[in-house]
Design brief:
By secondary structure, the protein is α+β, with helices and mostly antiparallel strands. It has a domain of 150 residues: Heat Shock Protein 90 (2-Layer Sandwich), CATH 3.30.565. It has nine helices and 13 strands. The protein has a six-stranded antiparallel β-sheet. The protein has a five-stranded mixed β-sheet with strand order 8-10-11-13-12, with helices on one face. The longest helix has 74 residues. It binds adenosine-5'-diphosphate (ADP).
């Protein structure tokens, strides 16, 4: 297959198409996975921020008295916070195990503003430096000058009496989220090309596997065409040679003319038989030659064929005997013509490949719901290595002998095709110089032919 350009190109195209489709599927899955991860992380960050802000909000509102006024209790609640306009503590606030612990971590910052957005109290590292006025949109994403991003949530604060006091703003660094997503991007960007290399290799191997049966059929068709051409050429060459020789003779006696015509008749009969066999086989391949299946009596078919082939057996000095091992008639559903051809081919072969003085037995028996027809001979036999090939089209073990007897190597191929189209099977057991046994099994039917 590797040497065949057409198959190599097709294999390459198949592998490329498979690799391309897999690349698209993997790429889309990668993008989908990344977006799901990004969304899930974003949601988790938003929930965390909402939770922290909510806790602060709940803790702060009960201590707020006057709108825009920073009470001392607020500073107590937020240890380490810096009131705008006063000197702020330089050192980091002590870590306390209280509800504000997250805000005291380095990734958070906090602001309290008045109702106009003027910053009153700050805590933690402010991404935009020490602003005096801030925007009061509920959700904001802020980019710090050092490239870090922050997510910020703003909520309204009310006094104890329910009057608007100002706003609490809590921001959270998105550094860990961005780092996490960057790692996923890196894994996907490195992993996808690696996976694609593996997939391309696998698809090349798989397309090779998929093409093997196609290549085998292609070779069989090539072989079949060559064999058919060869078989057709032989009788045609014989006809042509006879005609050329005859045409060179100026005066032909009636006997010579008759001989010439007989040769041409013989060869054209051979040609006609060959073409007929080829047609039958191709129709069988297309399952168009199923024919009309009707109950056929195997006892009658065997009796008819034995009578028909007795002349051939006598000529070959072979003793042809029939043994019916059932005391009733066996019927199979079959195309009668094909059934005669099937059993006839096996019996003819047995006679033809048995030396003078040998014997051929045709035995009919029943096994469960199958009719068993055994055709046994004491002939030349078939070597074990050849036994699996004799059913191939145009295959002949001994071509000279087969050609002498008019065989083209299609007899067993046709028999096999007919047996299969009747849900039957043929098996062979043989030993060179001892003989062969062909066993044909066909399913029996209960129905019998309707008398006209
Ligand atoms: P052919 O038309 O040449 O007989 P077949 O397809 O009928 O072709 O048989 C294929 C080959 O199998 C034959 O050429 C022959 O060598 C071998 N063969 C078939 N039947 C027998 C048999 N009963 N004994 C020995 N050889 C056989």
């Amino acid at each position: 297959m590797h040497q065949n350009k057409l198959f190599n190109q097709t294999r390459l195209r198949l592998a490329a198409a498979y690799g391309g489709v897999m690349a698209i599927i993997l790429g889309l899955s990668g993008i989908g996975f990344y977006r799901i991860m990004a969304h899930a992380n974003w949601q988790a960050t938003q929930h965390e921020l909402e939770y922290t802000t909510g806790k602060l909000h709940t803790a702060l509102e009960p201590v707020l008295k006057q709108p825009d006024q920073v009470e001392a209790r607020i500073e107590k609640l937020l240890p380490g916070c810096c009131r705008v306009g006063t000197t702020c503590p330089v050192s980091a606030p002590p870590k306390q195990r209280n509800l504000l612990a997250p805000v005291q971590s380095s990734s958070y910052y906090l602001r309290l503003t008045d109702r106009a957005g003027r910053v009153l109290v700050m805590m933690g590292d402010q991404p935009e430096g020490k602003l005096t006025h801030v925007s009061l949109q509920p959700w904001q994403t802020i980019a710090a000058p050092d490239g870090n991003r922050f997510l910020q949530l703003t909520r309204v604060l009310n006094t104890q009496t329910g009057k608007p006091w100002g706003y609490v703003q809590v921001g959270r660094s998105l550094q860990d989220l961005d780092d996490h997503l960057a790692t996923i991007r890196l894994v996907l960007l490195l992993g996808l090309p690696l996976a694609l290399v593996a997939i391309t290799g696998a698809s090349w191997w798989l397309s090779g596997l998929a093409m093997q049966p196609i290549y085998r059929s292609y070779r069989q068709i090539q072989q079949f065409t060559a064999d058919a051409a060869h078989e057709l050429r032989t009788p045609l060459a014989a006809i042509r040679a006879t005609l050329e020789a005859t045409l060179q003779e100026p005066d032909l006696s009636p006997t010579e003319t008759r001989n010439t015509l007989q040769v041409i008749e013989r060869q054209s009969n051979r040609l006609a038989q060959l073409v007929q066999d080829l047609l039958l086989l191709s129709r069988m391949d297309l399952q168009a030659a199923a024919g009309k299946h009707e109950p056929c009596c195997l006892n009658d078919v065997i009796a008819d064929l034995t009578e028909e082939l007795t002349g051939l057996a006598l000529k070959a000095n072979v003793l042809l005997t029939t043994e019916i091992q059932v005391d009733h008639l066996l019927y199979v559903l079959a195309d009668e013509g094909q059934l005669y051809r099937l059993i006839g081919n096996l019996m003819t072969n047995a006679i033809q490949y048995t030396l003078s003085g040998g014997k051929v037995w045709v035995i009919l028996s029943q096994e469960d719901q199958s009719a068993v027809i055994q055709i046994q001979d004491t002939g030349i036999g078939i070597a074990a290595a050849e036994q699996c090939r004799i059913f191939d089209r145009f295959y002949r073990v001994n071509s000279d002998r087969s050609r002498q007897s008019g065989g083209s190597g299609l007899g067993l191929a046709i028999a096999q095709a007919i047996a299969r189209s009747h849900q039957g099977e043929i098996k062979v057991q043989s030993e060179p110089d001892k003989g062969s046994l062909f066993t044909l099994r066909l399913p029996l039917t209960d129905s019998q032919p309707v008398d006209d």
